[in-house]
From TrEMBL:
Pfam families (UniProt xref): Glyco_trans_1_4
GO MF annotation list: glycosyltransferase activity
Gene3D superfamilies tied to this protein: Glycogen Phosphorylase B
SUPFAM superfamilies in UniProt: UDP-Glycosyltransferase/glycogen phosphorylase (SSF53756)
Coiled-coil segments: none
Species name: Sphingomonas tagetis
Protein name, entry field: TIGR03087 family PEP-CTERM/XrtA system glycosyltransferase
Length: 401
C-alpha cells in the first residue's frame, strides 16, 4: 500500500471553519492507515506555521497572495473559471511534481475543485476528488440574483466551472459530495457515474454542554445566536435578512431579546448590523461553544446553503434548540429535532415559540444532541472512505482536467 498525497485549497488545521473541519477529519481518518503528504494553500498568516502541527508525512504550505483583481483578469484572458486562476500557482505545481517523484504515492486525494488543476496529466495514481459541494450550482444561484458586471461574472463562473467539474469527474476514480442531495444534483448536471455521498460529522465530545470550557455569564434577556464565517456571502445575506425581517418580530414579543452574530472577519455590511437594537457583532472568538451554550435559541436563516451546515450540527451537539431555513436544513438527517421555517413570520414564530416554552426548548435541544450522537460521528460518516480508497488502480492513465 502506497502513500497518499492530499491537496487542499486551505490548510486543514485547526478545524475551526466548515471546510477545515471536513478536511481535517478526512485527513485524520486517512492517516490512520497510510502515510499522507499534504500540499495546501494558506490565506491567513497564522496558517503558514501549521505544517509541523499536522504531524503527517511531508507537508508543504504555500501562501496564496494573489488578489481577486489579478485572478479576474487572468480568468478573462485565459477563458478559465476565476475559481481556478485564483488558486493557480507555479510553486504548488512544482511542489506536487516533486512529491510524486520522491514518494511511492498511489492515491491523490483532491479536496475542492480548485485543486484538481494540480493532478498531473496522465497521472498513474488513483484520483479521489472531494468536491464537497457543487460550486457551479452556488454561482448559478448567485448569478440569478445579482445584476450588472458582478452578476455576469457569476453566470460565467457557473457555466465554466460546471464544465470543469464535469471534466474532472470524468477523469476521477471517485467523486465525493457532502450529502445525498448534493450527490444527486451533481450526477444530474454532470452525468458522472462514480459519485459517492460522504457526509460531514461532528465531534460530540468537544461540542458537548458538559465539556470543559469557559461559560459566559447569563444576560438580562433571551439570546439568539448565529455562528459562521462572516465574510461569506450566504452568511452575510442570512444574518442581514434575520436582523431586518425576523428580529423585529421577535423583539415585539421579547423586547430584551438579543441577536449575537459570532464569527471571524465580519464584512462592513455585517458590522453595520450592530447599529440595530439588540444586535451584537462579536468578530472572531477563541471558542464558539460558550456562545452556543448561552444561547436561548440558535438560528441558521440561510437563503442559499449547499451541502451540510456544520454550524447546525455544532448547535445540535451542544443541545441547543435550533431554528433553520429550509435551505440550511437540506442534507441534515435531523429527524424533526430542529425547527424549520422559510418566511420571516415562520422563523420568528418558531424562535418566539421556543422562547415562550423553555421546557420544550430544552427537550428539543436534548433530542438534537442525541440525534447527532446517533447519526453524525466522524468514524461512521467516513467509514465509506475505506471502501472508496480501496478501489482498484485505474486501468489506464487519466488526463487531468
Amino acid at each position: 500500500m502506497g502513500d497518499i498525497l492530499f491537496l487542499a485549497h486551505r490548510v486543514p488545521f485547526p478545524p475551526d471553519r466548515g471546510d477545515k473541519i471536513r478536511a481535517f477529519n478526512v485527513l485524520k481518518h486517512l492517516s490512520t492507515n497510510q502515510r499522507v503528504h499534504v500540499v495546501a494553500f494558506a490565506d491567513d498568516l497564522a496558517d503558514l506555521k501549521r505544517a509541523n502541527e499536522l504531524k503527517l508525512g511531508e507537508t508543504r504550505i504555500v501562501w496564496r497572495g494573489k488578489s481577486q483583481a489579478v485572478a479576474g483578469v487572468q480568468a478573462l484572458l485565459t477563458g478559465k473559471p476565476l475559481s481556478l486562476t485564483a488558486f493557480d500557482s507555479k510553486e504548488v505545481r512544482e511542489t506536487v511534481a516533486g512529491l510524486l517523484a520522491r514518494y511511492p504515492i498511489d492515491t491523490i486525494y483532491v479536496f475542492s475543485s480548485q485543486m484538481a488543476q494540480y493532478v498531473p496529466e496522465n497521472a498513474a495514481q488513483k484520483v479521489v476528488m472531494d468536491f464537497v459541494d457543487m460550486d457551479s450550482a452556488k454561482f448559478k444561484s448567485y448569478g440569478a440574483t445579482t445584476g450588472g458586471v458582478t452578476g455576469w461574472m457569476m453566470r460565467r463562473e457557473a457555466k465554466l466551472l460546471g464544465q470543469y467539474e464535469t471534466a474532472v469527474a470524468a477523469r476521477a476514480d471517485a467523486s465525493l459530495l457532502v450529502s445525498d442531495e448534493e450527490a444527486a444534483l451533481f450526477r444530474e448536471r454532470t452525468g458522472a457515474e462514480r459519485v459517492h455521498a460522504v457526509g460531514n460529522g461532528i465531534d460530540t465530545a468537544s461540542f458537548d454542554p458538559a465539556a470543559p470550557f469557559e461559560h459566559m455569564p447569563a444576560g438580562d434577556g433571551p439570546s439568539v445566536v448565529f455562528t459562521g464565517q462572516m465574510d461569506y456571502r450566504p452568511n452575510i445575506e442570512g444574518v442581514t435578512w434575520f436582523v431586518e425581517a425576523v428580529l423585529p418580530l421577535v423583539r415585539a414579543r421579547y423586547p430584551q431579546a438579543t441577536f449575537a452574530i459570532v464569527g471571524r472577519k465580519p464584512s462592513a455590511a455585517v458590522q453595520a448590523l450592530a447599529a440595530h437594537p439588540g444586535v451584537v457583532v462579536t468578530g472572531e472568538v477563541a471558542d464558539v461553544r460558550p456562545w452556543l451554550a448561552a444561547a436561548s435559541v440558535v438560528v441558521a436563516p440561510l437563503k442559499l446553503a449547499r451541502g451540510v451546515q456544520n454550524k447546525v450540527l455544532e448547535a445540535m451537539a451542544m443541545a441547543r434548540p435550533v431554528v433553520v431555513s429550509r435551505a440550511a436544513a437540506t442534507g441534515i438527517d435531523h429527524g424533526g429535532t430542529i425547527a424549520v421555517g422559510e418566511t420571516a413570520d415562520e422563523v420568528a414564530e418558531a424562535v418566539a415559540g421556543l422562547l415562550a416554552d423553555p421546557m420544550r426548548a430544552t427537550a428539543l435541544g436534548q433530542a438534537a444532541r442525541q440525534r447527532v450522537i446517533d447519526h453524525y460521528g466522524w468514524d461512521a460518516k467516513l467509514a465509506v472512505l475505506d471502501r472508496i480508497m480501496g478501489l482498484g488502480a485505474p486501468s489506464a492513465p487519466r488526463r487531468a482536467a
